[in-house]
Amino acid sequence: MGLIFSILSTFLWIMEIAIVIRALLSWFDPAMNNPISQFLVQLTEPIIAPIRRVIPSIGMIDISPMVAILVILILQQMLSRAMVAY
Asked: Are 62 and 52 contacting, i.e. CB atoms less than 8 angstroms apart?
């Protein structure tokens, strides 16, 4: 069971980092033409797209990556507490 917690924790950490890098790269490559940018979009879009459908952009600012990171942080806390309880 510890292995499953470890894998989930690592996955959440990778997704958090990927979303942050994607958001930073969007400032320099708004069209996401770079292969690294395209990879990050493919990796993170399944998480960000549903949030974007619920929470609209504020002007030209897309806050869905911040909400996604907040959700990931909550999931990490829940996983951490579940690991301690287990």
From this structure: yes
